[in-house]
């Protein structure tokens, strides 16, 4: 892990959770509303995953 939370780390953690758990229903992601969760990459990923609610 890294000492700071970057958008890459936040996105990697979400993708790892999706890969490991393989959810079969809707998933809700809670964040602390930090800047890494407002990045273009984060938003793009959330739009691609149609069962993900943020």
From TrEMBL:
InterPro entries hit by this protein: Integrase_cat-core, RNaseH-like_sf, Transposase_IS3/IS150/IS904
Stretches of the chain forming a coiled coil according to its record: none
UniProt record, GO biological process: DNA integration
SUPFAM superfamilies named in the record: Ribonuclease H-like
Pfam family, one: rve
Occurrences of domain Integrase catalytic (ranges): 6-47
Protein name: Insertion element IS600 uncharacterized 31 kDa protein ISO-S3 31 kDa protein
